[in-house]
Amino acid sequence: YIKLLEWGVAPRQIALLQDHYQDVLKVLDENPFRPLYEVNGFGYQSALKLADALNLREDDLRRLDGLLFRNARELSMKTGSTWLSMACMWDSVQGLEPEIFEAALARLETAGALELENGRIYPFGLCSEEKEIARGIANHMFDVDPPDSKDLETRIRQTEFSLGIEYDVRQKDAIREFFSRSVMVLNGGPGTGKTTVVRAILSIARSLYPDMVIQLAAPTGRAAKRLAALSDNDARTIHSLLRWNLEENTFAKGPSDLLECQILIIDESSMIDTHLFASLILALPDDCRLLLIGDEDQLESVGPGRVFQDLIDSGRIPAVHLERIWRQSEGSGIITLAREIRDEETCTWEDGVTYLDLPEERILDAILEDVDPEMDPDRFQVLAPMYKGAAGIEAVNEALQNVFNPPRAGCPELTAGPVTFRKNDKVMLLKNMPDEDVFNGDMGVISGIDSRTRTITVDFGETEVDFSNDFLYYLSHAWCVSVHKAQGSEYDKVYCITSCRNQAMLSKKLLYTAISRAKKELILLGDPGVFRSKVRQKTRNHRMTTLKERLWEYISLQPLESDSDDSRNLENS
Fold first, then answer.
1. What is the distance between the alpha carbons of residues 189 and 260, in angstroms, rounded to a whole number?
2. How far apart (Å, rounded) are the C-alpha atoms in residues 456 and 366?
3. Element (H, E) at 78
4. Which of 214, 143, 132, 208 is nearest to 182 (CA)?
5. Strand 289-294 vs strand 183-188: parallel, antiparallel, or unpaired?
6. Any idea of the CA torsion for 468, 473, 475, 481, to the nearest 10 degrees?
7. Distances from the Cα of 335 to the Cαs of 30, 117, 172, 188, 260, in angstroms?
8. What is the pLDDT of residues 15-68, one digit of tens each?
9. Alpha-carbon separation of residue 96 from 68, 101, 104, 264 (angstroms)
10. Neighbour count for residue 507 (Cβ, 10 Å)
11. End-to-end alpha-carbon separation of the chain, Å?
């Protein structure tokens, strides 16, 4: 332990090494980069410190292997791709002889650090995980015993009456499809009625199969809470459902301890990355039906992969696409704008949508002029693509804190670095805390501050959590958040910042996701020209995956034609 401290290794990293190896120094002497490949949470910089301490030569091939391993993982996370080309990887270590490069990849493959297949390089075990997904989906496409068609139509009419709504042809198709398939995708934009379809499915499933265990889940805590509220059913995060272990980054639920449910419904499925979906598939019981709900036009997952899109594009999974817009009440211009973005039509600002053409330095003042200290912080949200700048997330949060929760006598506060937290502040969790059943992106309110022990207590709605150190590591103010953090949530009123300074960060998917967070009122601030150009701009960094091809391999069927482009056009007509 003392030796590792002398070498500059942090205590937490030392603990990881001691937990993983019996004779740490012997392992490191053989190869100081070995923990980089084998120990979760042990990083490249720590491995470099070990290599330097052990006087490893600069041209030692073990250094090259570690560099290639690091580059592959970073490129995968940066691009969202599950695989990288040989050319891309070679560019990351310019000047290297081809023979030396190929030999290094071969060593990493032998060590199990990277996977190579057909000239593609897969980090993070993503090749195996794509295969697990394809194999798992294929295994879950079993024959089901559908209910009597007349009985099902009667139950649909009863549901319509009890909910006071009338389903259109496509929504009824979705309901029928669910009860005749074991796996199904329900895809649609905001206002197309996905939630009302799910409510019908839940109501009918409970009456038809009273003994079946039905589980609802979503990728984030906010999305799970929203799903629970809209469907009047309990919902959990996928991480919570799979019982995630933070320290080991593993799931307790899996092939040896399956989930206990016969119907699993997942909302906001476009946010699920390859690793999480593979873990979910491995934990499904053989007889479990699966319904994946999402919007293919929203932002993809933060982690590598495009699972939801690949499932749809494969043509192997029964999919129903809802396109008719139902939400035509207050704020209908938001739905219209979302459709215009999706269909690449001219964007219009009407019926709940306002565009304030402002330079960056005036955006924050415009927000401050519009907000009212009496507004419910849970009913509005400011979205920005960048943290820095005059209209960045940090500046907006600081200004809105002074509006909604200014310093005053008797109000406890605690300063950590440049940020001051006060009781009643709106905050967001930045890290997963599975032991507390709260996760990255969950929002709460500071319910207590103990200055003596430097403890902040946050009320997340269903649970209170104490934070006794590293406040900035775990918490941030949440009046203004990034679009990625807001995904899966909805608010009555949304302010969306789109200044020229931010334009490098803007994209069609990001802007579509941002505006579809608003239910009643959307205020866009910045340059309308930038907005219009960005929503027409094609994505430059297309995610490279092979899940679609693997689905073709494992599910040897002709592409499904029940929801072809022709049928979509007929429905639109």
1. 31
2. 32
3. helix 61-79
4. 143
5. parallel
6. 180
7. 60, 43, 22, 12, 38
8. 999 999 999 999 999 999 999 999 988 999 999 999 999 999 999 999 999 999
9. 11, 6, 11, 49
10. 20
11. 72
